[in-house]
Target: Ribulose-phosphate 3-epimerase
Amino acid sequence: MSTTDPRLARLKGVAPSILASDFGKLRSQVEEVVAAGASVVHIDVMDGHFVPPITMGPIVVDALKGVDAILDVHLMIERPERQLADFAKAGADVLTVHAEATPQLHYALGLARELGALAGLALCPGTPPDPLVETAELLDLALAMTVNPGWGGQKFITTSPAKIERMAALLPADVPIEVDGGVDLDTIGVCAAAGATVFVAGSAVFGKPDPGEAVRALTAKAQEAQAAVAERIPGPRG
Ligand SMILES: O=C(CO)[C@@H](O)[C@H](O)COP(=O)(O)O
Model:
């Protein structure tokens, strides 16, 4: 964890995923959710190899430059270390790579930091949390996929909260845990109670008629669950 980076203070709460947005009005939709309180905007990069779909590249990150939010880039691509420089140059604040996507994890995470970004490590639902232990000192964020990566609108995998708890037990308390996939009003509370503090939501935000209101409702649910946990067990993640 690079504790001095001021961006870490904003790396929390609901992170709307632009995968579910209307790309014809991308900037105004993003500005709407930021005005509603989102301090993180999630950008899903898919390469057609690590996951079947192809989505977006650095040009989309660049299009969001200047938005008053952390640009959180989730690289669902093989050998992400080869692309990190382009995404950093485009304005990525967080560069998250998958443990399953490269044999050179320490190199990739170190490079993300060297390029001036925060370094995130993502784990697919079937991947045990072990890589977090090996790379802990290089991590600014841990991402628990709560669906198999590749598509928005999937159903939340119900064993995810137990995995989040295992991750939280292994990580230093100041490394935030982000959840991604099937996060909505029904599932955000269990994620928050398990220790997640960043909540990626695509369909549950941009799939709604009022994305700003959706951010506020999700935020309230997460805070309610966090408050209930803090009342029971005061602690660093509470
Ligand atoms: O990384 C991914 C999908 O692989 C996600 O970020 C999705 O964009 C989440 O979408 P919803 O499940 O919230 O609709």
Observations:
- Residues 1 and 73 are 18 Å apart (CA to CA).
- The chain is about 35% helix and 20% strand.
